[in-house]
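FAQ: What does a multi-protein file look like?

Like this. Sequence, then tokens, then the next protein.
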Amino acid sequence: MGQSLTKFLTDYCDPHTVATNVRSFVGRKRRRDEVEDQDNDSDLLLEKTLHTPKKKKLLSTAQYIYRALFKEGNNSDVTVIALGKPWRLHKVYLCQSPYFASMFSGAWREAKEDIVHIKVVDPKINLDSLYTVLGSLYLDEITLEPIEVVPTLATATLFQLEGIIDQCAEIMIETVNAETAVKYYEAACEYGVQKVKEVAFKWLLINLLSHFQDQSKRLREISVDLMQKLVSSSDLFVMQTEFSIYVLLRFWMFLHLHPEWESSSRESLLEAQQYFQNRKDEEPFLASREGKRFAGPFQALRFQHLVNHHLDIDMLKSDQIVPLDWLAPSVSQQWYHMLRVDQGLDRGPKSMENDEFCRDCVRCGRTLVDAGEHVWRWTGFNMGLDLIWSCSTRTLRVKRNHRTEHEVMLSLQSRRHIMCRVTLASLDEQRQVKHTQSTGLKSLTLYKNEEVTLLVLDKDLTYPLLLSVNLLFNTAIVPSQETGSTNVLPSPAPSPNVNEED
């Protein structure tokens, strides 16, 4: 018995044997569990597969309608012929347009006919725009390229489709740039899209002098009427002084007179100047038969600010473009202003209405190409004020410079008042305004050599930075009560505080 027990313990209770048996048992159990887990996973996957919805993109109802009814013309009940092309269409869809709804209702002849002729007189409407607009009546949305937007707008206006007109307007506003600004403005005027007209006009005010002088093709596109409106505006961003507007107008007029002219801006500006100076006719060009049609934009110039520098006057005379009798009232007016300042009768305006300021103010400006400290002055006789302007990355400042070596040409009044408005603008890749900052209309009182800060620059302003400045140095002149004209010596506007050292 003892030997049997010893043998049992030796055979079955040996540690090595026990470990081997345990591993074998555990291994068999793990394999059974893995097989069971795999079976369970397969069942779950099958269950999930059977209960998961399967998506397959089918032809939508709108797409089917567009293809079957518009493109293929199935079950058409009317044929519309426009620009020589027949369109097999359906009255129920066409009547979404008030144009067709009116045509197919009431006592109109077309209401009972199967073939309708559309007379298209607008040259901007083409077959592609007809395809887009007529096809839109069979769709719930359309996609437009900017290059197609003006013909599409023209066609949508013909068929009175306000939704497409609004979509065209959105695209036009987003894509106003050097290539499209004039075209969009003219289209907006023609088709009554006021918002587009305003945006395009504002773009031109900002970019006309800062960008279009190098764009002869685009500058030539500007009509006489549009140019007159731009030059008349007090919001025009002028680069340098009023005389730069005159130079641009001279170049613009030269381009209209020479439709085929293509050259660099520097050569073109010189050629334009020589063309007018070398004319044999002694009659000023704007008074001639050929030049009268361009008179409007030149008459919109502020001549009182064109006669503040002797070199500018010399150029005006040698060009023989502007009749000298246009300049005479401004010369008389400025001389009268100067005498009043010299006699201490006018220390400058302290307050006025915005409309009055906009009508009479000096327009000047410049482009600040990069960040840093910029210091400059605008030349010309500004009623005895020498203003030094400076701009850093943080502030815009103006100083009344009064150095003793220049006192002979400076106002000796210890205190001078001016009105001003400064506007800064940063542009994006399309030269649309992405950020702007303005002082609004400000009244400044400056002592000799005093410097004031006009603006603390917004951090969102980026370079290049366009700067537009409007200034007024004198109090207003009231037209003569007898003549109603400023061609004679005018009466000064009532200003009880103008001479007081307050």
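And here is the next protein:
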Amino acid sequence: MKKILLALAAAGMTAGAFAEGYQVNNFSARQAGMANVGTAMKLGSESIYFNPAAAAFQESKFDISLGATGILSSVTASTLPTAANGYKSDLQETSDNKMSTPLHMYINYKPSKRWSVGLGFYTPDGSSMNWGSNWSGAHLIQEINLAAYTVQPTVSFKICDRLSIGAGLMITWGNFDLSRSLLSQATRQGLITRMLDPKITQLTAAIGSGALTGEELAQAQATLQMLQQGKGYLENTMDQSIVSAKLSGNANVAVGVNAGILWDINDQWSLAMSYRSRMNMKVDRGRAVMNIAPEAAALIEQLGQLSSNTQLIPALDKGTFHTELPLPTTVTWGVSYRPNAKWQMAVDLQWIGWSAYKDLNVAFNETELGIKDIYSVKNYSNTLSARFGAEYQALNWLTARAGIYFDESPVDSNYLNPETPSMTKIAYSLGASFRLARSLSLDLAYCYVSSADPERTGSYPIYGYSSGQLEEVFTRNYKLHAHVVSFGMRISF
């Protein structure tokens, strides 16, 4: 079992975030066709995730579900229209995201009429975004990959024929990497206006005065030439990333609880609630790798000699860092309705405790290096998500599904960062199950995700690393869409 879980984790390294924030919404190919409803439905082993209480209603002794999802997403960021550009955006940039592949696996065993035990593996949270090395927001983010993996042992018990409870331990670990440019255009322009230009003016005047002779004159001329070349290099590379850092780390194992209750009011109606506790993913010893263009490295060294009190580039690769990221609490209420043997409809309303994500602070363990914390304000807010789905058993071997969901953004427009360009989303899904044999079914689903509004305007304040002063406010219009395809196999016996 351990080898299977490690193989699944390796294959699912690039989980995609298509719930809001960095929460993933792909836990079942069958339920993906119904917009991922399932809290008040009896889904066999898949109830391990959606509502552990429902697993006790499993009809077979064993139920196994395996599946994968492919997510192709695209986000576009454009500058705001102004009178100067004829009320048209003069810059539009699109992310180049690789396909994300969250996976799931569930096994549930029911030894008696009243109770069952099971084990699930899934990807509850993740994010994958690649804007490229030289886009206009590279100083905020170039690429990010975040993934969390959960193994959940679960027990379910039927208190009576129509009421059940269940709970599981969420044993979660993860990893991340983040790349960003360290010399923004504003920082480079500041180097030119506050450091290079004054020194160039000073040296030009000294050389022209005739007061310098011999070795002093030669040294001043060499320094002036170096400064002029450095200024030209910075001006000519404003649209390029000449210094970047990649931070990566593995999170410690965190443990949380997934619990639920299901009540069959009668043969047609069911009510349910599930709860997933907050977990904090902690990285104790992350690492950084620097990527510096040779010309930039030489210039930084020379400028450091001229201004020894200024740290132009932090020595991130000389130490290790620690940081912490919360995986939020979720509470889901669900209702399902079965008007006859062929139809089933369900609604889920989910509350997500995103207010736990106030900031992200990367602090270095080796204080003697003098590296300042890398601090980002997040200020997420709690949100609601609503889902509706229906399924119809058209034939003995064919079941069709459809659904729609609405997912509210937790991010304030004043802190909208291209790292996770969060937008309120609306998604439409279709799916089908094909019974290939008495105990074997194939599930397929397609979902189209887009922003609820045509685009969202957001800004993010950027502060200088050395000065701590506000350098710029990065403002863009964002829009997104994604194509999500899921497939799975279910076996029961």
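Q: Is there any per-entry metadata?
A: Some entries carry free-text notes. For the entry above: The longest strand covers residues 470-492.
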